[in-house]
Amino acid sequence: MKKPCQHHTHKKQELSTLTSRLRRESRKVTGPRSAILEILRHHPHPLTNKEIFAELPAGECDLVTIYRAIQLLEKLGMVKRFDFGDGAARFELVAEGADGHYHHLVCTQCAGVVKIEECFPAEIERQIATKNRFQAVTHRLEFFGVCPDCQK
Amino acid sequence: MKKPCQHHTHKKQELSTLTSRLRRESRKVTGPRSAILEILRHHPHPLTNKEIFAELPAGECDLVTIYRAIQLLEKLGMVKRFDFGDGAARFELVAEGADGHYHHLVCTQCAGVVKIEECFPAEIERQIATKNRFQAVTHRLEFFGVCPDCQK
DNA sequence: CCACCAATTGCAAATCGTTTGCAACTAAAC
DNA sequence: GTTTAGTTGCAAACGATTTGCAATTGGTGG
């Protein structure tokens, strides 16, 4: 008996919401950018730039343009970067209002990804910060394992 | 009043202990390898290959040799890889008998590193594994913040 | 509707970390 | 010593990401 959506609030943002965010920052809403946002909107998984490129209709834009667009979106906080340790950065649209803080469980065989709600206990993190007199402490946490399909 | 060593057991392994491990695997104990092991022995921090290279007496060996040596040491479980998300892998000698599982608190300003004892609660990890029917679940966890010296 | 300008794009080339091919070299065993 | 599998240096290949630059374009003001 699985709940329909056990993850975070996942309502897809309107494309217009996203583009207006761009305009507000006096950035242009161009063909490549809308296309990239559309891809991200429809993929609730972290994607590499190359994967986004592959999803794009052939010749829509250059790979470099994607790197630049993603870079911009990340700077504006519209996209969050994830690192699964395989040498390629992955990006995911940040849900409206959310801080984009959550983690993943990645299959080491097929690279499948499940979003994880659990997070490192905030209190312990606070203790770590205090004990070491560090400020603005955050963490990067990802889980790895073998998914059901890859276990046979 | 700081305890002398608040980290894990940190007794330096003898170089001979390390080299014999190599011989046991029918690998050769060469100049470059001993030199690299010496560097690692004296640096209880994760080092990039390039940093190891810089520590080495000039011309001791090629950077490529370090990559290869580290690769071997990692395969033998003598060295553990860490990823601070800055594009360069870091390596640290695994304490004898230890599984090398611990984390770091990294300063985002100066890249200073503190070893962290706390770990993600094993029980919750088990729950995550069970709930998603994943096997052999582990995690990668690092903390980031601003160290005391960089706070002014 | 048009002109204007900063923002954007494509393409080629540069960077950076890491890996690989290969011929010359050497530690360790006999 | 001789032998040989394991190593090394050097050059080149690689994959991800960035940068320079000239050509293009979205959006604003008129």
Describe the protein:
The structure is a homodimer of 152-residue chains. The first copy, chain A, has 152 residues and is an alpha+beta fold. The first copy, chain A, has two domains: 10-98, Winged helix-like DNA-binding domain superfamily/Winged helix DNA-binding domain (Arc Repressor Mutant, subunit A), CATH 1.10.10; 101-152, Dna Ligase, domain 1. Helices cover 35% and strands 22% of the residues of chain A. Chain A contains five helices and six strands, in the order H-H-E-H-H-E-E-E-E-H-E. In chain A, strands 1-3-2 form a three-stranded antiparallel sheet. In chain A, a hairpin with a 5-residue loop joins strand 2 and strand 3. Residues 1-9 of chain A have low confidence and may be disordered. The A-B interface holds A 83, 85, 105, 107, 114, 116, 118, 120-121, 124-125, 127-129, 132-148, 151 and B 83, 85, 105, 107, 114, 116, 118, 120-121, 124-125, 127-129, 132-148, 151. Strand 6 of chain A pairs antiparallel with strand 6 of chain B, so a sheet runs across the interface. Chain A binds a DNA duplex (30 and 30 nucleotides) through residues 23, 26-30, 32-33, 48-50, 61-65, 67-69, 71, 87-89.
What secondary-structure arrangement, pairings included, does this model have?
The structure is a homodimer of 152-residue chains.
Chain A: H1 15-24, H2 31-42, E1 47-48, H3 49-55, H4 63-75, E2 79-83, E3 89-93, E4 103-107, E5 113-116, H5 122-132, E6 135-146
Helix pairs in contact in A: 3-4
The structure holds a DNA duplex (30 and 30 nucleotides).
